[in-house]
Every structure is written in C-alpha cells, then in structure tokens.
Write a structure and sequence with these properties.
A two-stranded antiparallel sheet has the order 1-2. The protein has one domain. By secondary structure, the protein is mostly helical. The relative contact order is 0.16. A hairpin with a 5-residue loop joins strand 1 and strand 2. The longest helix is centred in the first third of the chain and has 28 residues.
C-alpha cells in the first residue's frame, strides 16, 4: 500500500519500504480498524456495552487534557473567538439536555418536540457560522464566505428533517477524531501522514464490507431496555426499514475508531509530556491561580470518570442515557478547536 522511491546509482528510481516506525504505525491502524469492524459485525450490542463502559469517560478526560494544550495562554485578538466558542458550548449543551428532560416533564406533543429540535439545530448552525466568520478574519486569513449559503441550506434541511439531522451528528461526530489526528500528524509526525491517509481509505472499504454482510440481516434479538436504547441511539426508530443490527454495528465501528484515536493515537502523536504534568499546559503559565484551577479541573474530571464507571455498574441503561445527553459538551467543544487548526 505504501511505496517510496529513491535514486539508484544508475539514476533510476527504485522503490523501497517505508521506515519501520511508519510501517508499524500503519499496521497498528489497520489492525485496530479491522478488529473493530469484525467485532462490531459479530457482537454489535456487546461491543457497544464494553466500549462505552471502558472508554467513554477516559476518552473525554484525555480530550479535555488535549484541548487545554491547544488554547493559548493569552487570547488577545482571539478573545472574541474563544468567548463565542465557550458560550456556545455551554448554552447549546444545556439547551440540548433540556429538550429531552423538559419535553418529558411538560409532556410535549410530537410537533412541539420537533420544533424544539429544529430550533436547536438552527442555533447550532448559526453558532458554527459565527465561529467560522471570526476564524476567517484571523491569521492565516481564509475566504470562507461560501459557508453562509451552505449554512442556510443546512438550516432549511433541519426544519424539513430535524431528527435526520440529529442522527447525522451521531454518525459524523466520530469522524472528527480522524480529522484531529491528521492535523496533529502534520505538526508532529509529518513522516507518518501519508501512511495515515492511505489507511483512511480502508475505513469506507470496511464499512462497505460491514454493510454487505449485514444489509439483509435480521434485527437485533431481544426487547430489553438496554438493547432498545442502543438501537434507538443508532437510529433504528427513525430508519425502520434498515436492519437494527447493521445500524448498531456501523455506529459501534465508528465509535471504537473514535475512542482509539483519542485514547491511543492522539497521546502518542501530540502530547509531548505526561498527561498529569499540568505545568506544561500553556494556560497554566498565565498565573499560579490558573495552574491550580486547571489542576482541579483535571482532578474533577478524573473523579467524574470514576463516578461514570460506578453508574455503569449500578444502572447501565440510565447512566448510558445520561452520558450521551451530557456528552454533547465534548462534541461541541471540538468545533472551535478544529477550526483553529485549519
């Protein structure tokens, strides 16, 4: 899959193998992707339960630690961008959670619920467009005026199919981790980037194999609460004409890749120091108070990971529902930082 060329003494170009580190990186990526696809196809519900239990909390903690290192100690002209980002993350997460909880408490009608969902999706698009505008005015400047008509088109779609839009976020979000890893490789491991991009071509191939094997498979057996919730999160209620086994397997495959990138690949590539060395975080250098605050934030995050594990032990279905509602926070938090990397 990977080939390189050097000039021979006669002047001809001859291929040679990639460096061992690059080759090992590519083999590891392909092995993880292949195993994830295989397990997701065979045991979609079981792999979903185990993966969320093991990695949901830790990957959020590692992601928070990573995002800390990507925020400059002094914002200066970036102040407006970061304040808009923080306000949007907090406000949109709170409103996202309230739609479900308030809707149940107030016994909303289906129409009211769809209007609330479409309104939230509209606010999300407007927030992203605002961030894109602020980012385009920063160095290096970008001509991103084309995003406005695209955003208006997306707003139209979300009012036509609000629930389909939400389901799209479920499946697209895991892919953002692959984008983050590509940007980090460009900065820290440029020699691995070509191998990584070649490996990415295997993701649609593996998805194609998964769909080919499961497109006519029977739906997931069992009507227990946990299986029903996992299937619903993958879109089984909305896409009733597609096998729930296929939907869950697809989501599990993408989610395992997402966890693998954040838990293993990102720390390997871009965290130059141990995760607990808070003094190496740029924001911690602003003042001793900031250093203490960031340390407490990471300690609090580690405690939440333990609480999450305890919740999974005591009531897995309920804890899973709460987690995937509150987890919108880290989904949204990735957007400003990804824009900064572009």
């Amino acid at each position: 899959m990977f080939s390189f060329a050097v000039n021979s003494p006669s002047g001809d170009s001859v291929p040679h193998a990639p460096p061992p580190s690059q080759r090992a990186f590519a083999v590891a990526l392909l092995s993880v992707a292949g195993i994830a696809c295989l397990l997701a196809g065979w045991f979609p519900v079981g792999v979903s339960i185990v993966a969320v239990f093991l990695f949901a909390g830790p990957h959020n903690w590692i992601e928070a630690r990573y995002l800390m290192t990507r925020m400059p100690p002094k914002w200066g002209p970036l102040r407006r961008f970061f304040l808009t980002g923080i306000a949007g993350v907090i406000g949109l997460t709170a409103s996202f959670a309230s739609i479900s909880w308030v809707g149940q408490w107030a016994n909303w009608s289906p129409t009211t619920y769809l209007i609330a969902v479409a309104s939230w999706n509209t606010a999300l698009v407007v927030w992203v467009l605002t961030l894109v505008h602020w980012r385009s005015q920063q160095n290096p400047r970008r001509d991103w005026n084309w995003t406005v008509p695209v955003g208006l088109f997306l707003i139209t779609l979300t009012w036509i199919w609000p629930l389909t839009w939400d389901l799209g976020l479920v499946y697209l979000h895991p892919l953002l981790a692959l984008w983050f890893l590509d940007r980090e490789l460009r900065t820290h491991r440029a020699e691995w980037r070509s191998a990584y991009r070649s490996c990415l071509l295997m993701v649609p191939v593996l998805l194609g194999i998964l769909w080919w094997q499961l497109y006519d498979s029977p739906s997931l057996p069992g009507n227990d609460l946990l299986t029903s919730r996992i299937a619903a999160h993958a879109g089984a209620e909305l896409l009733s004409g597609i096998s729930s086994r296929l939907l869950v397997a697809t989501h599990v495959f993408l989610e395992v890749l997402h966890y693998g990138v954040w838990v293993a690949m990102i720390p390997l590539v871009s965290l130059e120091s141990a995760a607990w060395r808070i003094q190496d975080v740029p924001l911690a250098k602003r003042s001793p108070r900031w250093k203490w605050g960031l340390s407490m934030f990471l300690v609090f995050g580690a405690m939440l990971v333990l609480v999450l594990w305890a919740g999974f032990f005591l009531d897995y279905p309920l804890t899973r529902d709460i987690y995937f509602t509150v987890a919108m926070l880290h989904v949204l938090a990735e957007i400003p930082f990804l824009l900064r990397l572009l």
